[in-house]
Design a protein that fits this description.
This protein has about 525 residues and is α+β, with helices and mostly antiparallel strands. It has eleven helices and 27 strands. The strands form six sheets. Strands 6, 7, 8, 9, 10, 11, 12, 13, 18 and 19 form a ten-stranded antiparallel beta sheet that branches.
Length: about 525
């Protein structure tokens, strides 16, 4: 078992709740005296359940502030237990952050773990027919400090404010058959995961597809904060089990909030793979000054969901409602369950759910979904711990702000064929995306061998909204490349740092970084220097 396996198992273990621990102790105290005699504690905890050793029992009974006169005050013990757990978690988080910070100082905020072996990708072709390399407008001279490095390459690109791209939408698009599905990007420590899709076409057809962030804000005229997150969509042709799918096309042009592609696709099955650079979907380090309330008790002492929590759950419902029908099928609900708990709801459990919560045509309504969460709160006697686990898995912070997720919507129009679009999984695709990105940049980008080290080539690709650089290492051995963006202006890197290092194994390619404008209404400057470290 490796560390990732261990983490996956621990994630499924729900932490103990204070209410549960107190409830267990009260079963040992039927008279509700608030304490347990030491002799009873020793007898019970060394003979039942997961038995404690004599040394462990002795350690508990030696705690001066929870023991007195041969009695254990279990209320005080529970308070001490959870305060100690909180302190341990805080200490562990601080230590982890220190380790991550040290790692970032060397390698940036994203570590490439799956470089692609070079296979002459420049000979491959995309269906859009454009194989002309994009030229970098200008190049800075080799810096005077370059003598400290094995090789260096620099590029300077001046980018103007974002303009509306030429609109590719067919004039009769409203008459074309259309398939739509929602989905979501979720930010995790080791990358970004999202829904993956299967597209079926029964005959060859001109296809127009778009992907854009999904605005869930219910306030008129107010936009959801994640609407600035960049989106893209790769279209892959299934390879019938023979290696990775082959890239057919990807969205390059942007129209308002949508990234679009238009072209011809033959009859058959395709995989649609959503992608975001991570420039604008990143960990929010803003401290939370006040934790939002999730539940309260009304005048009748009944537990109720707060308005803010109901609003957040309603947004979660819309995220999970992939077909936008206003109801959750078992399949849609299971995407939610896999994300929030790691387990699926089977047919029997779904039948129980339908018996207890409002459904229509065997699908869960919005009210039923809200009531289900209220039941969970009641099961925990008002303890919101499990509710927070659900919310945080869906990208919310403790202020009930969605900061680590970006819902999106995909539309596929086909002129001559009724398209079928279906979400088939929710997973990370970092390894495959690295390959696709490397291939597309090597195909369409400007290639610049490093001065003094021509076995290392930096490819730079740009479209209207982003710039991506890829490093190709033709040496047999691993190299380490320092990347410096200090002189860039009004720009943000997917690495989260202006200076970082990238490891590139021998005979392989790795994505160096993606860069976007901080403010798209203003000009921005990409000024990047790549240096091979000795």
């Amino acid at each position: 078992m490796n560390f990732d396996d261990f983490c996956a198992i621990v994630k499924k273990e729900k932490p103990a709740a204070k209410a549960e621990l107190l409830k267990a102790f009260r079963k040992l105290d039927p008279a509700n005296k608030g304490y347990i005699l030491h002799d009873d504690f020793t007898r019970i905890f060394t003979t039942r359940g997961e038995k404690m050793s004599a040394e462990e029992v002795s350690a508990v009974l030696r705690l001066a502030d929870v023991n007195s006169g041969g009695r254990l005050d279990y209320n005080k013990f529970c308070n001490k237990f959870f305060s100690t757990c909180d302190q341990c978690a805080k200490d562990a988080a601080e230590k982890l952050e220190t380790n991550i910070r040290a790692k970032r100082q060397q390698f940036g905020s994203q570590i490439e773990t799956s470089p692609e072996r070079s296979t002459s990708p420049r000979n491959q072709r995309f269906n859009d027919g454009d194989t002309t390399p994009r030229k970098v407008e200008s190049k800075s001279p080799r810096p005077s400090s370059a003598r400290n490095y094995k090789g260096t390459a620099s590029a300077v690109i001046s980018m103007g404010p974002l303009k509306v791209s030429r609109h590719m939408e067919p004039s009769d698009l409203q008459d074309w058959p259309c398939a739509r599905s929602r989905g979501c990007f979720f930010l995790e420590e080791n990358g970004i995961l999202s829904h993956h899709y299967r597209l079926q076409l029964t005959q060859k057809s001109t296809v127009y597809l778009t992907i854009k962030p999904l605005n869930l804000s219910r306030a008129e005229g107010k936009s959801s904060p994640w609407m600035c997150v960049d989106t893209a969509l790769y279209v892959l042709k299934d390879s019938d089990g023979r290696g990775d799918p082959q890239v057919v096309s990807f969205t390059e042009l942007r129209h308002k909030e949508s990234y679009v592609w238009k072209g011809e696709l033959g009859a058959g099955s395709y995989t649609l793979l959503p992608f975001t650079t991570g420039c604008r979907l990143r960990k929010n380090k803003k401290p939370i000054t006040k934790e939002a309330r999730l539940v309260y008790r009304d005048v009748s002492e009944d537990l109720q969901l707060t308005p803010d929590f109901r609003s957040a759950l309603s947004d979660v419902f819309d995220m999970v409602d992939l077909d936008g029908s206003g109801f959750l099928s078992l399949e849609e609900y299971n995407f939610f369950e896999l994300r929030s708990s790691g387990e699926k709801c089977d047919d029997d459990a779904w039948e129980v759910c339908k018996e207890n919560f409002e459904t229509k045509k065997n699908e869960l309504t919005r009210k039923g979904f809200l009531d289900l969460n209220l039941m969970e709160a009641n099961d925990r006697e008002g303890d919101p711990s499990d509710l927070w686990v659900t919310l945080q898995s869906m990208g919310y912070n403790k202020a009930l702000e969605m900061t680590e997720a970006c819902p999106f919507v995909i539309d596929v129009y086909a002129e001559k064929s009724k398209p079928k679009l279906k979400a088939v999984s929710l997973e990370s695709s970092s390894r495959l995306l690295q390959k696709l990105l490397c291939r597309s940049v090597l195909l369409k980008g400007d290639a610049k061998p490093m001065d003094g080290c021509e076995q290392v080539v930096v490819y730079t690709y740009k479209n209207d909204t982003r710039i991506t650089s890829v490093i190709e290492n033709k040496f047999d051995k691993k190299i380490v490349v320092q990347v410096n963006n200090d002189q860039s202006k009004n720009s943000v890197s997917s690495r989260g740092m202006s200076v970082f290092a990238v490891e590139v194994p021998g005979k392989s390619t790795s994505v160096s970084q993606h860069v976007m404008a901080v403010n798209e209404k203003l000009e921005w400057l990409y000024h990047c220097v790549h240096n091979v470290l000795p």
